[in-house]
Amino acid sequence: MSATSSPAAVSIAIKDIVQEYPAPSGGVTRVVDGISLNFERPGINMLLGPSGCGKSTILHMLGGVRPMGTKTPTSGSILIDGVECHGAHDDSVMVFQRYANRPDLTVFENVAFPFRLKLWREKIAEKEWRQRVAEMLKAVGLADKQQLRPAQLSGGQNQRVALARALVLRPRILLMDEPFGALDAQTREEMQRLLIDLYKAAPCLVVFVTHDVTEALMLGDRVIVLSTQPARIADDFTIDAPRPRSTEWQRSAEAIRFEERILSQLHKSSAGKGAVRVTI
Amino acid sequence: MSEFWNPYLPLAPGRRRALGIGAVVAVLLLWSLLAGSGLVSPVRLPAPWDVLSAFSYLAWHEGESMLFIATLWSVGRLAVAGVLVILIGIPIGITMGAAPKLNAVLSPLIDPFRSAPVVALLPILVMWLGIGEEMKVAFLFIGAVVYLIPMVRDAIQAVPQSYWIGARDLGATPWECITKAVVPMAMPRIADAVIVAFSVMWTYITVAEYVNARVGLGQLIQNARRFSAWDQVFAGIIVIIALALVTYQGMNWAKRRLYPWETQQ
Ligand SMILES: Nc1ncnc2c1ncn2[C@@H]1O[C@H](COP(=O)(O)OP(=O)(O)O)[C@@H](O)[C@H]1O
Ligand SMILES: [Mg+2]
Predict the structure, then answer these.
(1) The CA-based dihedral angle spanning residues B93, B94, B100, B103, taken in that order and rounded to the nearest 10 degrees
(2) Which residues surround ligand 2, an ion (CB under 5 A)?
(3) Which domains does chain B have, with CATH numbers?
(4) Whole-structure pTM over 0.90, yes or no?
């Protein structure tokens, strides 16, 4: 992967978004309650909150994909480069926890899947995308596995495929929904290192959703802490420590201060309403 | 015996085959015993060896193979109906699965026929289409397509939503999501629907050939019945069962070759 493509600047403005879902008992449940946020430059932005607080809901809004028939957002707006976003757009690509790798396609075909679609076929010539896919497979360390199928790969390798499929499009916005949440601790750390390397090679605007405090501290330029039921912004701060951050840094006074700050914020805003994880 | 009740215990292929062949041989033995001992009169139950000689008579008699010609005709009718079932039924099933509104419109028109007495439609088809080949193919087609369409629809709806969302997020149009993400994932189950459709058609072939067939396996059985040649009736039924089994096994084999990933994930 080359660093030639200059970071295409992009801004996201979230204005007072509210999300309500029909409640099982009738009426509505407000899941997201008037969140406003701005992302202005490339960086890794962590959206941290307890399970079920509405992180995925917000991320889906940013990606413009609606999983259900519900109107998203209920009110408020999302602007990308000042243009209001309705529905799917090609500035962002998502990576999910449950990698949507296709079991019927090989690793190569999975990463090259976007180029089966008219949108990307028209934008990028076959010669170029083939080269991009090859480079991307090398960058995520799967060059020797490209003819295998997802069932023949480990969970971490599958998530590498998903990451490669997203990054091969060189998106200006990368949306990640607990991408490493289902992995074991060691694999999760490997994947975090990989993400940092890939990000350094081609910085973009990353919005990374997690309920893992440690992950937020190890990866984030900025950490946005969400309260739960309904989701509001409980805290929003930046971390300047250079990446990759060592285990020594993790045990430093600075990191511990951040961690305590997050936990006390969550405690204040949503005591007893869902859990965050701290990995040691 | 401790491992008898264990649905996950893999059985060696040789052992499985031995047990299966053993069962068939046991039935043949019981049959021979019943017929040979005179316990059941040959009018009610022809002996296996009589069925065998009837089979050889049908297979080759006076320089002609009635059985072969009948099989060709039946297979031909089934093949034509099968092609129509695939070409018409699969697209309908896919669009129903992919568009809930279309499903809401079409499913009350199609689903009830799964439990409808399709055989009772035969006189109506005769009235509409006459007693020629069109009627026979149409009967097989209707009998099978009412099973296939709901199965294809269900196959589409069973594809996890994540594949649709994933494709949508990558910029696929809704139509591309269906054709490039959902349908490929539904293919193994669509293949199952085709296999079921062919099995259903084999069960209906005798009915389809009931009216005015000059040649065909169903006609062969019916003719033999008219002359109370029960050994020939048995031989004809066994041939149909064997053909249905070969179709099923062959199509299953092809399906496993085409979609090897299905069992892995
Ligand atoms: N389509 C929906 N209909 C009704 N409730 C939903 C829907 N999607 C999410 N929710 C509810 O909204 C809340 C937030 O969900 P989600 O955004 O997935 O949380 P997170 O990603 O933080 O775990 C949960 O309580 C969930 O049950
Ligand atoms: Mg979530």
Answers:
(1) -10
(2) A 56
(3) 66-258 (1.10.3720.10)
(4) no
